[in-house]
Amino acid sequence: MGTLFRFVTVLAALATVACTPRERVVAILSTNDMHAKIERFAQLAAAVERCRDTVPDVVLVDAGDRWTGNAFVDKAPTPGMPMLSLMNRLGFDVATLGNHEFDLGQAFLGRMLDSMRFEVVCANVVSDTTTFPQPAPWTVVERGGVRIGFVGVVTNYEGPGHPAGNDASYAGLRFPDPQQEAARCARELRGKVDVLVLVSHMGDDRDREFLASNGDYDLLLSGHTHVVVDTVIGRTPLLQTGKELRNVGVTVLRMKGRRLVGIETRVVPLAGYEPSPEYEALVAEIYASPELNAPVGRFSADADGWGLANWMAAAVADEADAEVGFYHVGGVRRDRIDAGEVSSAMVYGLEPFGTRVASMQMTPAQMRRMILEKYNDTVNLKEAHRIDLIATTPYDIVVDAEDRAVDVRFPALSEGRLYRVGMNDYIFRNYRGLEYSEGRIEDDQVAEVLLEELGEESPLRPDNRPRQRIVRP
């Protein structure tokens, strides 16, 4: 018997035995950052079905980033549709927008919204375009006479001014401050509902910041930062399930009439659930693509996250005929690839964004500024204070006692010399502090470069050695 089933059963029993007949239980099940990892959807379906068998009143909610990360979904005849079909079938009720919903452009997203049989809410996107309909800021779901208000917000911190992604995807849209909009919606909606929930794709760091000064919400369902969080800030539970459908969030509301008298939260692993046969068959059908499953080449050893990032940095450098290559950690979407055959689906899962190779000339001083700006980023906090830029050349980031980067040392480069540099076009378009000469974006997509290298040079032996370090006082 799964943890979710035990948890809800115990709480339901407590509510039945210890409370008046008017008291009831409402369960909210939540996901976030699924990134099309449908191989775990049959286990999610099993957990949801068990919960619905136990508790009459269940709401199913998603906090954004439903696609991008699985070639079998992202390269379907209609990209993303296999994910949406599964969500529709399982009966999701509410979702907000994540940054990756915009990966294929707002016109595509506008069309996809018509295929979502659940309410999509986002209070801090304003549309002046005809291609993307203005989403509602909130929706109210009623279960057993209890009115639950769901407000949605999405990050605008990475752009800056819009979610992470290329500027062209957001042309004609405005993204007001999500925290201000969340507070405004709480003021407007609080008297109209019995329970108020914020469905946030800001990231748990920004969610904590918001809850520290705002206690109007009864629950905050979080996404974007890919971490597991089950805590309380002020009086408000904050819940995030990690990423890729490894867990489901469980919130149990105990209601006395229309008054919330108790709330319990938990992040429950899905690994212990026997998959639903119905959904297992649906997923198997989606994965039955001969083209994507066919091996392209081989790895002679396991590649971990460092090994994959090193490979990608070296590949863009080779394609750009460059002496130095850079790749950003956020663009490496697999944690590992094991030794053995590597299919095109694995490579497209590693690099699902269709990014291109960019080339330019830079001095070590210009590279240093780019790395320092990223480490000390005060806007995109989830990517700050870490090694974000993997390079083919070794370097050390020197930080002070406050963990602020003060220098970058390049032991293999000569100061003042111009180097030909390769990177992906996401870094080229979006990173602050980037200075260069003779910069351009090439026609080659990174995933295609990786596939070509696999096909021509297999077996490849990954280099898992970190070339970058943080040097602390």
Describe this structure in words.
This protein has 14 helices and 24 strands. The chain has two domains: 283 residues, Purple Acid Phosphatase, chain A, domain 2, CATH 3.60.21.10; 177 residues, 5'-nucleotidase,  domain 2, CATH 3.90.780.10. 30% of the residues lie in helices and 29% in strands. The termini are far apart. α10 crosses α14. It is α/β, with parallel strands linked by helices and 473 residues long. The strands form six sheets. It has a six-stranded mixed beta sheet with strand order 4-3-2-1-13-14, with helices on one face. It is globular and about 75 Å long.
Please render the helix and strand layout as text.
Elements: H1 3-18, E1 23-31, H2 41-54, E2 57-62, H3 71-74, H4 81-90, E3 94-95, H5 106-113, E4 119-120, E5 126-127, E6 138-143, E7 146-154, E8 173-174, H6 178-189, E9 195-201, H7 204-213, E10 219-222, E11 228-233, E12 236-241, E13 247-256, E14 259-269, H8 277-286, H9 290-293, E15 295-299, H10 305-319, E16 324-328, E17 340-343, H11 344-350, E18 356-362, H12 364-375, E19 389-391, E20 395-399, E21 405-409, E22 419-424, H13 425-430, E23 437-445, H14 446-457, E24 468-471
Parallel strand pairs: 1-2, 2-3, 3-4, 7-9, 9-10, 10-12, 16-22, 20-24
Antiparallel strand pairs: 1-13, 5-8, 6-7, 11-12, 13-14, 15-17, 16-19, 18-22, 18-23, 20-21
